[in-house]
């Protein structure tokens, strides 16, 4: 599990391509290295990856076909920066919201509005069906960052970013048309799906009752 509080950014040093598979090596910040071992989980732009090798500050991770398909990690090139966070411990402060590191879809940056001490970024999810889980003032994970949803339309949503977030994460350098990883808040997803299921059951019961009355 992760908190969505990005601990730093890491440079992608090299990428080794294989058939439906990729290994990339990143340079992790020094403060993230103590106690890092093989098998540890590290969030890359919000996607949970497993450490496969450690050589000083050069750390390797493997990415399978499904990860490359669903996330923006397949777009990375050597020299790119990614948001990174190590897995949370029970004693850690949860400054954001609990995140699993499982990406649901990506979203395209479709509008950027700059004002003094604030930046408003609008996103259009690739999978439009995910919009029903994105609610005004709800939680969302964007490239591993825990954020609060601003305005929401039928197909788009926005977030408001303070200078600290822009400085500490990769969102400060994002441009129109770039893709970000989206993780839906699981609690919101569970509530929405439960309400849908209850309403569907009630509708089915009403239709069955109406059919019985017509048959009498």
UniProtKB/TrEMBL annotation:
Database matches in Pfam families: Lum_binding
Keyword match Transferase: yes
Entry keywords, A to Z: Repeat, Riboflavin biosynthesis, Transferase
Molecular functions (GO terms): riboflavin synthase activity
Domain annotation Lumazine-binding: ranges: 1-97, 98-195
Keyword flag Repeat: yes
Domain of life from the UniProt record: Bacteria
Any one Gene Ontology BP term: riboflavin biosynthetic process
Broadest EC class assigned to this enzyme: transferase
Lumazine-binding repeat extents: 1-97, 98-195
Cellular component GO terms, alphabetical: cytosol
Enzyme Commission designation: 2.5.1.9
Reactions accelerated catalytically: 2 6,7-dimethyl-8-(1-D-ribityl)lumazine + H(+) = 5-amino-6-(D-ribitylamino)uracil + riboflavin
Pathway involvement of the protein, from the record: Cofactor biosynthesis; riboflavin biosynthesis; riboflavin from 2-hydroxy-3-oxobutyl phosphate and 5-amino-6-(D-ribitylamino)uracil: step 2/2
Function: Catalyzes the dismutation of two molecules of 6,7-dimethyl-8-ribityllumazine, resulting in the formation of riboflavin and 5-amino-6-(D-ribitylamino)uracil.
NCBIfam families (UniProt xref): PRK09289.1, PRK13020.1, ribE
Protein known as: Riboflavin synthase
Organism: Winslowiella iniecta
């Amino acid at each position: 599990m992760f908190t969505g509080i990005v601990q730093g950014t890491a440079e992608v040093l090299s990428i080794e391509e294989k058939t439906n598979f990729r290994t990339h090596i990143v340079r992790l910040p020094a403060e993230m290295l103590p106690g890092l071992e093989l098998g540890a989980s590290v969030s890359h732009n919000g996607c949970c990856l497993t450490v496969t090798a450690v050589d000083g500050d050069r750390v390797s991770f493997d990415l399978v076909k499904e990860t490359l398909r669903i996330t923006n990690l397949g777009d990375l090139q050597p020299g790119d920066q990614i948001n990174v966070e190590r897995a949370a411990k029970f004693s850690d402060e949860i400054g954001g919201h609990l995140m699993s590191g499982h990406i649901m879809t990506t979203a395209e940056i479709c509008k950027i509005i700059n004002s003094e001490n604030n930046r408003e970024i609008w996103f259009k999810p690739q999978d439009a069906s995910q919009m029903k889980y994105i609610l005004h003032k709800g939680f969302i994970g964007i490239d591993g960052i825990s954020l609060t949803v601003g305005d929401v339309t039928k197909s788009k949503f926005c977030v408001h970013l303070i200078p600290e977030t822009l400085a500490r994460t990769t969102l400060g350098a994002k441009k129109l048309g770039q893709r970000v990883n989206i993780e839906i808040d699981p609690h919101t997803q569970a509530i929405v799906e439960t309400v849908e299921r209850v309403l569907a059951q009630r509708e089915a019961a009403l239709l069955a009752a109406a059919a019985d009355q017509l048959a009498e």
